[in-house]
Structure formats: C-alpha cells, structure tokens
Specification:
35% of the residues lie in helices and 24% in strands. It is an alpha/beta fold and 223 residues long. The chain has one domain (6-183): Ribonuclease E inhibitor RraA/RraA-like (Glucose Oxidase, domain 1), CATH 3.50.30.40. The strands form 3 sheets. Strands 1, 2, 3, 4, 6, 8, 11 and 12 form an 8-stranded mixed β-sheet that branches. The protein has a two-stranded parallel ribbon with strand order 5-7.
Length: 223
C-alpha cells in the first residue's frame, strides 16, 4: 500500500476499513487488546463518524484552575495539531465535566485534525453533530472544566478505554469500536487488513448471489 502522503492513507482507511477487520488481523498477529474496551462505553456522537490518523494524547486531571488562563495547555495542544492528527483525550480520574466542545472541534478541524476521541464527556454535542466532526465520547455533559479540571500533560502515554496508548500510533475509530495499532507492526497490519477487506468483499458478493455459507467458508476461510 503506497500513498503520496499519510493523509491519503487515512482517507483510504476511512473509506474501506472497519474496526472488526483491524481487530481480527491484530489478533492473528498476536496483538490482542488493541481495541478500546467496549465496557468503557466510548461511542461516536453520530453513527457515520469514522476517523483514522496519528494519535496526539491529552491528559486531564481534577484541578482548581482559577479564571485567568484555565485552558493554557489545552490551547497549546490545539494550536500544535497538524493535518492527520487525532486528538485522544482522557483523565487521571473520572470527571463530570465536558473535556471537549464545539469550539475545540472547530479549531481542531481547521488545523487538519481528523477527529477527537474522549474517554469522558463532551459538551456542545448537537453543534458537533451538526458540523459532522468525528467525535467519540462516553456521552455529553454541560459542566465546564473551569475550576474543576485542566489539561496537565499532552503527547504522553495514557490509558484510554482500558488500553495503554502512545502518541504517534495510528488509530482507527468507527461505530463498532476504536483500534490502536502498535507502531512496530503498523505496515503489516495495514497491508493484511487491506487483503482481508478485499476477501470479505468477494465473500459478500457470493453470499448475495445465493451461494451457501458453508461453500463460501470452505473456499475463502473468511466469515
């Protein structure tokens, strides 16, 4: 799989890949536990949301921020985003606040970010849905972070959805789940997933044509 740049790769993934195929390939390669746990209940704000890109992490914590510059590190992080990045936000402890919002989404999109994943809550859900910026979260909360929580670090290892996540990994997220691809095997994972997607397309065509499931399985060993 060759592309002029990574943006082309990410667009290809968003068009043709799905999280189940990636998860199957990672399992087969001996890399279980690369999907965010479904028990974390992190879901897309709208069913069509799909994103693929390089992870940029954002770690929040409960904190009295004051009101002079409560968003200092958050703003630094957003301004540092580059095309192809996906913001991955979590916190040291569960928070009731929304750690993502519509203004952040607007700025992220302008910087070229492909989406935002939140192990926590977002604000402004209706506006984010209206703008169709791919955002995944546990749900929505109207509660502001000011004097309650703040970003304490970014571009650091984090625990997201029960998994350890590193900056720079490729992430893929869709309605079924979120997959974090280890950097040391990303090329092979992407190549093998493309093969699997092509095989499943052939299987799908034969099933739609009325072929029996058993015969299709014996022919492709894909189901």
């Amino acid at each position: 799989m060759k592309f002029k740049n990574e943006i082309g790769l990410f667009k290809f993934m968003e068009r043709f890949f799905y999280s189940g195929a990636l998860s199957d390939i990672l399992d087969a390669m001996g890399y279980p536990g690369c999907a965010a746990s479904p028990h974390a209940l992190i879901r897309p704000l709208f069913p069509q949301a799909i994103c693929a890109g390089r992870i940029r992490t954002l770690l929040n914590a409960p904190r009295k921020t004051g009101r002079e510059d409560p968003y200092r590190l958050a703003l630094d992080f957003i301004d540092s985003l580059k095309p192809g990045d996906v913001a991955v936000a979590t916190s040291t402890k569960p928070l009731e606040t929304g750690i993502m919002g519509e203004l952040s989404a607007t700025a992220m999109r302008k910087r070229g970010a492909r989406g935002c994943l939140v192990d926590g809550y977002t604000r402004d859900a209706r506006k984010i849905i209206r703008m169709q910026f791919p955002t995944f979260a546990k749900g929505a909360s109207p509660i502001d972070t000011t004097d309650r929580a703040a970003v304490i670090k970014y571009d650091c290892p984090v625990i997201f959805g029960g998994r350890r996540v590193l900056p720079g990994q490729i992430v893929f997220a869709d309605l079924d789940g979120i997959i974090f691809i280890p950097r040391e095997v990303e090329e092979k994972v992407l190549r093998e997933t493309a093969k699997k997607v092509r095989a499943e397309t052939r299987v799908r065509k034969e099933l739609r044509a009325g072929k029996k499931a058993r015969r299709v399985w014996e022919k492709y060993h894909v189901f």
